[in-house]
Write a structure and sequence with these properties.
single chain; 171 residues; mainly alpha; 2 domains; 2 strands; 53% helix; elongated
């Protein structure tokens, strides 16, 4: 699982070492188009101003609002960048990214296979087409912190799964 990296959301792609801008494209000689939002935001100044002077007494509400606004612009820029990157990928590249970033999707089908719940290729395909069919099993697996057969919690997970109604009370 990827670790949270503060730099991923603080800095936008208009850093000084970058020749491309997400809003106006290729930047020539460090000059963005006059309509480019990067002209309104100094990335380094905004991040430094917000995080290093956060608790100083002399800051006014307007100072905070300005710094928070800059951070929102930078966050919006990251969203736009991610959307552009995603749009340029093929369907199979997108699928690979989803499966690799959310490995829990593929790990859970392995758990279902080990439990004997899905065995045939068509049952596995049914899982990928409609994973909510196994929502109760997933919630229990998640509750036991995603155990596998070689983990201590596996037997507790399996015994809870074998209870009538997956341990839920009937009304």
């Amino acid at each position: 699982m990827e670790q949270f990296n503060q730099d991923d959301w603080i800095w936008i792609g208009v850093a000084p070492e970058t020749d491309d801008c997400l809003f106006c494209g290729r930047v020539y000689e460090g000059s963005h188009l006059s309509s480019c939002p990067s002209n309104m935001v100094s990335v380094h100044e905004g991040a430094i101003s917000l995080w290093t002077h956060m608790y100083e007494d002399f800051r006014t509400d307007e100072d905070y609002a300005k710094d928070v606004g800059k951070q929102l612009m930078m966050a919006a820029d990251q969203v736009i960048k991610a959307q552009k990157d995603w749009a340029n990928k093929t369907t199979l590249q997108k699928m690979e990214e989803v499966f690799n970033n959310w490995s829990v999707i593929t790990e859970f089908v392995e758990v279902l296979y080990e439990l004997g719940i899905v065995q045939t290729p068509s049952e596995i395909m049914d899982y990928y087409k409609n994973p909510t069919l196994y929502e109760k099993e997933f919630v229990l697996w998640e509750e036991y912190e995603y155990p596998f057969s070689d983990d201590d919690a596996w037997q507790d997970f399996v015994s809870r799964l074998d209870l009538p109604n997956n341990g839920e009370t009937q009304f």
